[in-house]
Amino acid sequence: MSEEASRPLVFVTRPIAEQALAELAGFARVDLWEDEMPPPRDVILGRIAGADAILSLLTDGIDAAVIAAAPRLRVISNLAVGVDNIDLDAATASGVAVGHTPGVLTETTADLAFALLMAAARRIVEADSYTRQGRWRTWGPRVMLGRDVFGAALGIIGWGAIGRAMARRAAGFAMRVLYAARADKPHQARIGATGQEIAGASAVALSELLGESDFVSLHVPLTPETRGMFGAREFRAMKPGAILINTARGEVIDQRALYEALAAGHLGGAALDVTSPEPIAPDDPLLKLPNVIVTPHIGSASQATRLRMAQIAVGNIRDALAGRLPAYCANPAVRLKTKIA
Ligand code: DGY
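# (2R)-2,3-dihydroxypropanoic acid complex -> structure
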């Protein structure tokens, strides 16, 4: 076998930052799917069959059948903090490490969540369209009136790193911050779950948070417990006129129920960076509502953060191929498979 052929093979499912690809090519053979669209399932099944590692995106479904089709696979390295596209149990049972990219995208995602909050409150997207359509005829005392952010109440659901980063931003706007970190019961809040307090933020029950917040921002991972946790009941419990921000995962909310709460005039608006499905259908009724903003899942999309995520994903592969647990491992209990010659 040539020296080149003896290097591990990594299937990379989309072009990532050039610099990170070059780092990967320094220790592995790179099989790159160059298309902008995700590789179809049959391509993943075919290309993973001979791979020692896969660098996957959140759009790639890495389920038990895909893992079973990859006898040499030692690591699935996801370019995301969320790993809801991967069957973690199947990976662990097969001795395959799952790497992810927490931490590095926290501030970038909180920036976007706060930008969406501001945009929804002050109707920035609507106001920009109004101007472009030539409807701005004069300064008007009743034109494009929005909601104050300064001094308003912000409810944060999910008190992890991104939820707390959101709270820090809110402090600069003198917002009253309420938070609820959800436990395993659908309608209960776990108080101070992380033990990391932010000055001025109060842990409350979910019902109190919903009833008192002018803005509610979701920051939970998608798990069996959080899937669909926000439905008609939660929207009804929100304060009239409140605005919902979702930068977590679309499946956390019941989108139909959200539409109904908005169409009925109970909610004041919504700003969504994530939808179910993704992309949202162009004829989805939510997109007909002027008080809804939808961005295409860009929470972590800054140049610096996407480069850092790609480097961490490459580092996770390097670790696993060297027989170590990835530095950022989503299944740390895994017993790593040894190299197959
Ligand atoms: C993640 O990392 O899970 C985000 O949704 C994309 O950066």
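# post-check
The first helix runs from residue 18 to 25.
Residues 48 and 112 are 34 Å apart (CA to CA).
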